[in-house]
From TrEMBL, chains A, B, C, D:
Domain of life, source organism: Bacteria
Pfam families, sorted: Trns_repr_metal (PF02583)
Originating organism: Ancylobacter moscoviensis
Membership in a protein family: Belongs to the FrmR/RcnR family.
Lineage: Bacteria, Pseudomonadati, Pseudomonadota, Alphaproteobacteria, Hyphomicrobiales
InterPro entries cross-referenced by the UniProt entry: Metal_Tscrpt_repr (IPR003735), Metal_Tscrpt_repr_sf (IPR038390)
UniProt protein name: Metal/formaldehyde-sensitive transcriptional repressor
């Protein structure tokens, strides 16, 4: 079981919104919308990706660290430390 | 005319790849792939969004600042400064 | 007791290096070093600040989450989630 | 002449404030302040480093791109593109 099960529906909704934002940017590029507007759309995608990341990390902490049994928790902590290193690089 | 015209094809290809990455994350969430793997996929999306941003800003600099006429350049510079502020916040 | 006790010496060494980097940037500004060089120095400070952040978060996870007793762990997890939200904003 | 000449005083003041923030973090580590508080101080340093970066890039754009003569502008643009790539990596 993954930590994402519980909040699966919410996470999938976030990912679909992001896909919709990518489609809007594709259309904006096709129709030659001014680049400042496109950069604003991309900045908003960046914010949404950060929000998705934070939610995935929080789920991981709750399911694989906070609620986990002793042995599983050690593994959850090791994974978490890897994730933090990747994102803080 | 937008600064994105010239590199339009390349930019659209980048955006489509990103959309494909979002679809892969959606499928991964549906099939309950371990969250550490999903976090890696999202980290790679974040890198791709940064790459897209850098390319859009570079196009803007080349088309609306470097090659622009005096008056248009002032406007291009003002837009660029706004973009830098947004992304460095 | 803080989670930073154990790695205190190492963390303080990192912070002192960062202070030294700030002093070097101050001198570079005083002596009108080309701005591209100064921007490189500041990029390197940014990397060092991210490294310091990652180390502080890892210490927090090890001391206040992994090793903590039940009640303290809940508090450690709540603090960790706040930190993640701040840094992913 | 560097692009930083004009705003030199303001930039140096920013760098000194950052150095002061590093000294405060060093004292906080020495006196075993709770790590959540130290992480907040480091988050605020990160914001200040981003602000310094944005100001340096803006100065560069104004002095070496907007106001520069044809040949110098080309060089200023090339440096700017390098900087954007470094910061968007």
């Amino acid at each position: 079981m993954s930590h994402t099960v519980r909040n699966k529906t919410r996470l999938i909704a976030r990912v679909r919104r992001l896909k919709g934002q990518m489609e809007a940017i594709e259309r904006a590029l096709e129709s030659e919308v001014p680049c400042a507007d496109i950069l604003n759309q991309v900045a908003s995608v960046r914010g949404a990706v950060n929000g998705l990341t934070a939610e995935l990390i929080e789920d991981h902490i709750r399911e694989h660290v906070a609620k986990a049994e002793e042995g599983a928790r050690e593994e959850g902590v090791a994974e978490l430390v890897d994730v933090i290193r990747t994102y803080m690089r």
